[in-house]
UniProtKB/TrEMBL annotation:
It comes from Kroppenstedtia eburnea. GO terms for cellular component: plasma membrane. GO terms for biological process: cellular response to phosphate starvation. This is histidine kinase. SUPFAM superfamilies: ATPase domain of HSP90 chaperone/DNA topoisomerase II/histidine kinase, HAMP domain-like, Homodimeric domain of signal transducing histidine kinase. It holds the Pfam family HAMP. Residues 144-358 form the Histidine kinase domain. The chain crosses the membrane at residues 7-30, 59-83.
Amino acid sequence: MSQKLQFRLTVAFIGVAAGVVLVATTAFILETHYHFSIYQRQFPNTDSVQGLTYHFEQALIQAILWTALGAVFLAIVLSWLVARRITTPLVIMRKGAEAITKGNLQTRVPVHGKDELAELGQALNHLTEELERQEHLRRQMTSDVAHELRTPLTTLKSHMEAFEDGIWQPTPGRLRAVTDEIDRLTGLVGDMEQLTLLDSPEFELEQKKEDLSVIVDQTLTNMRATFDQKGIALKSESVGPVHAWVDRRRIAQVLVNLLSNCLKFTSKGGEVTVRTEQKGKEAILTVRDTGEGIPQEELQRVFERFYRVDRSRNRQSGGSGIGLTIVKKLVESHSGAIQIESKPGMGTCIYIHLPNQNNLQ
């Protein structure tokens, strides 16, 4: 952190001290010269010790008085300049902070120089920008949640009205459609609860050294029947044990979310491969499919909440749009990183890098 303001204050105090010394020296020399001149005029032919002592005392007293007056003057001037330099930007920042508390998140304070006050102004501006971004995300999320809930609720309402009016008979197929909509609503609420938990300060991982290949094998065993039912090959590639410092349950959740995405967007006859490998101080988990793929311009947005690559895709096949957001947050909570590569028509590959030791130790 810059110490320019502290340096300026130090220089100001040194300036006052130097000014006092200079005034004192000048005043003493001038007063001494003045009184000795008077003494020589009063006693031109004598060596009066009493007169000399008197004039010396007067010179000393007046030098002290002039020094005090000069010191007070210097202190007032420099204090005013320093106070103005400090208080002016502080007043501006206070007014800016008051505007922010009233909800005006477009407020920005002017920043001049590179001292601590300038850094404080920059910090306030950055805080305002972050608050503005969070407010935008909050509004966007509210809009997205309303949009996501509206479709299944509208569907349920239309089904119920059709049953009540006798237009439809409650056949097993139609009742199953109602159940599916309820399941999707339940899943959406569950995903939103997961996001809230991940954003909470109370969220904690139960990390320990785990073999990723074992977690992968168990997860693939649990999901293989679903893939077989759709005619998609599910494969695992691991070379020996691959250790990572992870929360076993959360990494399994990450893998389930990724495989669920692969299942939705990979056609019959396709293939999904999960690979684990050790590389230096990290373990790498790779999930590759031969599905639809993602356009290059969409890759940076796939981890956003409620974002779908194809807006025309129905919600039944497209999911809630929260799964990859949860994946990213869980990976980052492990001090890991996630990357995605994809080309339309050629499938998607997701790389997850995880530490193989406790980074807190």
